[in-house]
Amino acid sequence: MGKPLTNVLLKVFANGFYRVHGGILFFLFLVLFGLVEPAQLLGYHMALMLAFITSPLMMSIVFGIWLLYTFKCWHYIAGQIYGVHQQFLFYSSTSYTKQKQFNSWMVVQVTVSLPVLVYGGLSVGVAVYHHYVLSAFCIAVYLIALIAISAWFYSYLVNHLVDGSKQSVLLRFTKKWKKPYFSLYLYHVFNKLKVNYLVTKFLSYLIINGVFLMFADVSHDQRVAAIAMLAITVAHSILVFEERRFEEVYLIFSKNLPYSKTKLFSSFAAVYALLLIPEAAWLFTRFAPLTAIYLLAFGLGIILLFHCMLYPLELDMEKYMTRVLILFVVVFWLLMFKLLWLIVPAAFMLSYTIKPPNPLERDY
């Protein structure tokens, strides 16, 4: 599988990942295993795994946590790929066949995902032992999908060296079009972040099918669709992070423009509404129009809340993902108590309340 390449990638990326994140992983290990008496440790974790395996609610929460961990891996490895000291990868690793590159990146992702894979593998074993074959199948397929998508993503990044002098077909075709402020990030997505967008939409597809498979016996319950939309918003959290990065890197001049808070908020809402068009199509084909509109508003409100949470964080991915996880868990349990009607206006109000960093911002 291109062993020399695999060894280099492991040393550069996997070792670096654990050096940077070893502290937080050790802390989580202590939380999971150090707060329980040794005599009760096995029974405690067996009970946790059985709850995870037998309850679609717990499974969706755990899958969400694993997805956030995978996003963290993407953020670190993608950042390192484009680092100055890793530029040799664009010329050396691409001499291997695409299959060998993919296999090597698979090994890297498996290595950085060991905390998730070990727990997931034990859960599969427990599920099979207790005859929960469907749960074991879902866990295994989900983990394999995360690893394969990650390996493909890294291979794509390495094989597409950035050439700032070359414009995409989209930009050449639309260079004479007027581009409203809110549309700039959309052009950036389809020009530079096509892979991120496609991966996000593929995850949305897996989430929709996976959630309705897990909740097949109560698929008519509106909360099931709301849980799917909540998981979809988590899948979009990376695109939200990239939007804020785009603002800080390419739209820094906009801080000197007299845009009102209402106009800025409306622009962001328009951007994310357009990014959610595929999910909107699914909602309107499956649910009554009013239900679909409310579920779409729910997803849009949560995404806007993700966006506005980034203002005080200064693009700190680790803090951002932590808050996304906390918000995911809180909203999930609010949905369980049938409080969707409350979450939607609350999300929009909280999002609007958080002040964007624009010194010339005025309310008109």
The rough form would be described as globular
Oligomer: single chain
Low-confidence stretches: 359-364
Strand content: under 5%
Alpha carbon gap, first and last residue: 61 Å
Q: Care to count the β-strands?
A: 0
Order of helices and strands: HHHHHHHHHHHHHHHHH
* Radius of gyration over C-alpha positions, nearest whole angstrom: 22 Å
Number of helices: 17
Q: Percent range for helical residues?
A: over 70%
Largest sheet: none
SS class? mainly alpha
In short:
The chain has 364 residues and is mainly alpha-helical. It contains 17 helices and no strands. It is globular.
Explain what you see.
Helix content is 77%, strand content 0%. The chain is globular and about 65 Å long. With 364 residues, it is mostly helical. The N and C termini lie far apart (61 Å). It has helices spanning 3-33, 38-54, 56-81, 89-92, 98-112, 114-129, 133-158, 169-174, 184-192, 194-214, 222-235, 237-250, 261-275, 277-286, 289-309, 317-336, 340-353. It has 17 helices and no strands. The protein folds into two domains: 1-162, no CATH class; 165-364, no CATH class. The longest helix has 31 residues, at 3-33.
Task: Spell out the key features of this protein.
disordered C terminus, 0% strand, 2 domains, mainly alpha, 17 helices, 364 residues, globular
Give me the secondary-structure topology.
Layout lengths: L2 H31 L4 H17 L1 H26 L7 H4 L5 H15 L1 H16 L3 H26 L10 H6 L9 H9 L1 H21 L7 H14 L1 H14 L10 H15 L1 H10 L2 H21 L7 H20 L3 H14 L11
Helix pairs in contact: 1-5, 2-3, 2-6, 3-7, 3-11, 3-16, 5-7, 6-7, 7-10, 9-10, 10-11, 11-15, 11-16, 12-15, 13-15, 14-15, 15-17
